[in-house]
């Protein structure tokens, strides 16, 4: 496989373009069996109703089970069990679905469970709330079957789901880190890195975009995230490099080129410094661990 297979949003599933849907896992199981490893290009909130097994998202192996919600953002790489027995429903939507609806164009990026720096892609709502949201999914699916689909009704129901999930986050300890969630420079940096890290590695670029100095940006990142701006960017690059090494047969030179490094040797030094192994060593070790 020369690249990670992409799942794109099916905009015309119901005829006229629509940027949101609720899909049962049983309806896309055949695609999982064909390409268990894939990259999503849209937001995905998967509610697991039955089963218990491992799913890997961006190199993080997670044990998911009934009652769990998997929160995924565009660009995330998923690996399912090829013959997954999980059951549930996925709310999928594109960012543009809300762009004409909210005055605040950054609404989705301000939801803690959809932030690029979220601590975990998993949520565990109460049984009562889980059931309540599944009922909203039924309403969305019913609305999608009528002749004249009301995009406004769909949007309102999706917004209600997001608001209820965000209320969970506000009540959990994870939000004790709200100081950095509310720092506009830090959030601006995180959003910019998410958008540009595959092409631009230079801290100065991000500082310039935020109209602050690189030193001041580094001070903010160090104080609130406990790392440096450079290391934060490097972590994102290494994560993508690991995905490409694990799930494609791209050569080291091809990966180096795709990630915009000056040369394969420079990429190799960078990867070893960050991951502790050379790219080739990581690839061999990763394939060995998957076969045991």
UniProtKB/TrEMBL annotation:
Per UniProt, which keywords does this protein have? DNA-binding, Transcription, Transcription regulation
Q: Which SMART domains does this entry report, sorted A to Z?
A: HTH_ARAC
Coiled-coil positions are: none
- In terms of superkingdom, the source organism counts as Bacteria
Domain called HTH araC/xylS-type: residue spans: 187-285
What the entry lists under Gene3D superfamilies is as follows:
Homeodomain-like (1.10.10.60)
Q: SUPFAM superfamilies, per this entry?
A: Homeodomain-like, Regulatory protein AraC
Q: Which GO terms describe its molecular function?
A: DNA-binding transcription factor activity; sequence-specific DNA binding
- Return any one Pfam family short name: AraC_binding
Q: Show the PANTHER family listed in the entry.
A: ARAC-FAMILY TRANSCRIPTIONAL REGULATOR (PTHR43280), TRANSCRIPTIONAL REGULATORY PROTEIN (PTHR43280:SF32)
The molecule here is called Helix-turn-helix domain-containing protein
Could you tell me which species this protein originates from? Elizabethkingia argenteiflava
């Amino acid at each position: 496989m020369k690249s990670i297979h992409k799942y794109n949003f099916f905009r015309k599933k119901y005829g006229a373009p629509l940027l949101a849907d609720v899909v049962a896992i049983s309806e896309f199981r055949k695609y999982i069996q064909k390409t268990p490893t894939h990259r999503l290009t849209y937001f995905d909130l998967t509610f697991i109703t039955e089963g218990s097994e491992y799913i890997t998202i961006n190199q993080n192996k997670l044990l998911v089970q009934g009652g769990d919600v998997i929160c995924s953002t565009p660009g995330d790489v998923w690996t399912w069990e090829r013959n997954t027995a999980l059951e549930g429903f996925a709310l999928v939507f594109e960012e543009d679905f809300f762009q004409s609806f909210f005055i605040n164009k950054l609404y989705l990026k301000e939801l803690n469970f959809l932030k690029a720096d979220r601590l975990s892609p998993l949520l565990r709502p109460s049984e009562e709330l889980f059931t309540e949201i599944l009922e909203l999914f039924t309403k969305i699916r019913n609305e999608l079957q009528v002749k004249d689909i009301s995009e406004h009704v769909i949007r309102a129901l999706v917004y209600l789901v997001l608001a209820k999930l965000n209320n969970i986050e506000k009540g959990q300890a994870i939000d004790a880190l709200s100081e950095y969630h509310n720092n506009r420079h830090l959030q601006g940096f995180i959003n910019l890195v998410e958008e540009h890290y595959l092409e631009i590695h230079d801290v100065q670029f991000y500082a310039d975009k935020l109209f602050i100095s690189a030193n001041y940006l580094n001070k903010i990142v160090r104080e609130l995230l406990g790392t440096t701006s450079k290391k934060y960017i490097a972590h994102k690059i290494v994560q993508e490099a690991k995905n490409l090494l694990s799930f494609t047969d791209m050569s080291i030179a091809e990966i180096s080129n795709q990630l915009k490094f000056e040369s394969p040797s420079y990429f190799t030094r960078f990867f070893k410094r960050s991951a502790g192994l050379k790219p080739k060593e990581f690839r061999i070790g990763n394939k060995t661990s998957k076969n045991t």
